[in-house]
């Protein structure tokens, strides 16, 4: 498989992926509506379309993972989501909520605020994960030296500090065990 080294090619792959995933999600949701409306044939076709789009998206992920850079290993993926994807999504949803509220669409605004809050929750869950050492070379990361215990909040904090993706608020939440992944309930 060719590796997309060019930044614009990689950006194009990310855009295509977003469209495929969006199409698949929309098709699944509309299939559920078709079922409710008593149109099982439409629902079947929409679910088939969703599956095909998901397959296309998975193929694009293969390109993204094999490209050098931010998705090269699990630690890099977490850093990418914690640093880029989730904060950008939360900011976008908050902006959409403000715009909807300005236009008198309070129900839509409330929904967008829920989506923004969900991005924060997803970020906190990722921050609570024990992280393997990052791979800085071409060789696979040495997993044998990762002896962290997923149930130990201090170990999670140390691993996240090591890869530099914990801000002060998150560090306190992880160390204090207030993240959902570390709650004792």
Features:
mainly alpha; 6 helices; globular; disordered C terminus
Main β sheet profile: none
Unreliable residue stretches: 135-185
Query: What structural class do helix, strand and pairing data support?
Result: mainly alpha
Helix content: 55-70%
Q: What is the succession of H and E elements?
A: HHHHHH
Q: Could you give the count of β-strands?
A: 0
What global shape is seen?
globular
Beta fraction: under 5%
Number of helices: 6
Q: Termini distance?
A: 45 Å
Over the alpha carbons, how many angstroms does the gyration radius reach?
A: 20 Å
Write the layout of secondary structure elements.
Blueprint: H1 7-36, H2 40-66, H3 74-102, H4 106-127, H5 153-163, H6 168-176
Helix pairs in contact: 1-2, 3-4, 5-6
Describe the structure.
It is a single chain. It is built from 6 helices and no strands. Residues 135-185 have low confidence and may be disordered. The longest helix is centred in the first third of the chain and has 30 residues, at 7-36. The radius of gyration is 20 Å and the shape is globular. The chain is mostly helical and 185 residues long.
